[in-house]
Amino acid sequence: MNEEFKKVNSFDRMESLLINIGGRVGNLMEVAQEAIDPEGPLGKELSDQEKDLISKAISEVEEKIAKLKLSIK
Length: 73
Known about the structure:
Order of helices and strands: HH
Helix content: over 70%
Structural class: mainly alpha
Number of helices: 2
Distance between the termini: 21 Å
Strand content: under 5%
Shape: elongated
Oligomer: single chain
Mean pLDDT: 85
Largest sheet: none
Number of strands: 0
């Protein structure tokens, strides 16, 4: 019974991580779209602030992927 509980718990954790990854990817897409908007601060060029926001969004995606990798080991 304990092994079955561990499997269910593991699947729930993986599902939760995948949902979180999806949310982070969505955030990354939104930040990137706003950054390349011609109406933005530098037009299609990226400002330092926009670069920082994109970098942070990428890091958040990478963090969630790393957690998923660890959960399947």
